[in-house]
Amino acid sequence: MVNSLPPLAWLFTRPEFGKPRLVHGFAVDVFEDGFFEGCLAGNMAGDLTQIQEVFGSGMRIQNGKYVFITPSHTRESIFVYRRGRDISFSNSLPFLLEFHEVTLPWDSHYARKLASICLGIDAYEKELLKIGETEILRLAYDNLVIGPEGKCELIRKPMPPRFKTYSEYVGYLEETLRQAFANAARDGRTMSYHPLATCSSGYDSAAAAALAQPLGCREAITLTEGFTKKSFAEPDSGKVTGESLGLTVREFEHPGNMRLKGGFQDIALFLATGFGAVDYNYTPFAGVLGGRVLLTGDYGDVIWGMHSEPSSDLTRVVFSGNSLQEFRLRRNYVLIPVPFIGSRRSQEIWTISHAPEMEPYMLRTDYDRPIPRRILEERGVPRKEFGQRKKYGATVLKNPLVLGDRVRSEYEAFAAKLSAPRTRYRVRGLGWKTREGIYRAASVMEKFLPALRSTKRSLIGESFPLFLHSRPGESLEICVALAAVQEMYRTEFKSNSTITVQNGAPRLVMKK
């Protein structure tokens, strides 16, 4: 254990010669046969590959094999470093890079590779970097099994049960949360975690809070403002909804795009994961997240929306929640994006949303989600208090340098160390911006020329959400942010200590 590391960060390395080593923060639970951070709905002592709902990551030795466990949502990943027969794993990309003294060279495709998770768990890009014998991989959702000879195999998590009715589905959500809360607070853990809900004026986080309240959740947090497609600073507090559920609600001001009080490393925690630091709006909550199981409504737009297409491989077009991983490891909380629970049964959930039994809860509008509406109304929340108008809490940072002179100067200092090919990425950036402008113009003109609707995608060659994250400048920001966060790990790792392996378990913290 290294107390100076982020509490929930871990790195496990198995060199070709020598003993396996584990380096971790103080909140990672270490067992005789493995380790884990987070919580899950199941028995930690059983076969982890058979657990459907996992909200964290770790490893167990089962039948002589290393079994690495990933979250059962696509908000976070584990990362793999491989060079010859040496192999390492971590729940932090900058920690992994720093441990192996790797500086990620600029490549215009990093942002797109990370954002490809929107294509689903079958189609996303796993390889982030390959130079000679060195390979860096990103793995999401599927568990990873490493055999005695080093053979790697991805094992898909089992499917949730089928849902025929609203009651069956909501019952599964409630039972999953009950088990996860019990696991998070169980005796014998290094640290216990207790539920904290997010709650806005919309559907998804409010429904998650409603499900959690009877199971022991007593508090919620909310941002006072959000934004619509046309304006920022729209009222978005979920205080009234949360209090209707019996929760104590704390309100926080939205950080906006121009209120960054810290330096570049503060925002680098979000930029380093990719996705344009879309979750920087979580920073006001930083002081209240430690030791909590944070419930969010991320993915509700897909799984509960009346107009979305069912997808058992977790495809999506919105990236909120995907830039939190480094922030979470440092702030020491567990993340449960509730709509992901059971979401691989999306066809059944879609059928339930459109079923006759849900008719009383349908609004017949563009913003219509009968499942969360029924959850909330059956728990006593008046219809007019929530889900009236779609708003967004995520922060859109197309250029982090607009956040002030201090951020700009620190960013430039890290960028200078990378020796990035500025001319090359600026030329590519100009080409990208030209294509974006043509696409947006075609989107406006298609109202008058419907034929453009079928041809405009060929202008960018992929889905527009993925194209937005193929901006070359965003890839540079990722490289610079990774360098900044690596420097944080470098400082924290200097105070590490050494422990011997006990009973053959991977209970080892060592210097490189």
What does this structure look like?
With 512 residues, the protein is of the alpha+beta class. The protein has three domains: 10-158, no CATH class; 166-385, Rossmann fold (3-Layer(aba) Sandwich); 400-489, no CATH class. The chain contains 14 helices and 19 strands. It has helices at residues 93-99, 110-115, 166-184, 204-212, 239-244, 264-271, 300-303, 325-331, 346-353, 370-377, 405-418, 422-445, 464-468, 472-493, and strands at 10-14, 21-24, 29-31, 34-40, 54-62, 65-69, 78-83, 86-90, 127-131, 134-139, 143-146, 152-155, 194-198, 219-223, 225-227, 232-235, 248-252, 292-296, 334-337. The strands form four sheets. Strands 2-1-8-7-10-9 form a six-stranded antiparallel β-sheet. It has a six-stranded antiparallel β-sheet with strand order 3-4-5-6-11-12. Strands 17-14-13-18-19 form a five-stranded parallel β-sheet. Helix 6 (264-271) crosses helix 14. It is globular.
> How many domains?
3
The CATH first-level class of the largest domain comes to Alpha Beta
Bulk shape: globular
Total strand segments: 19
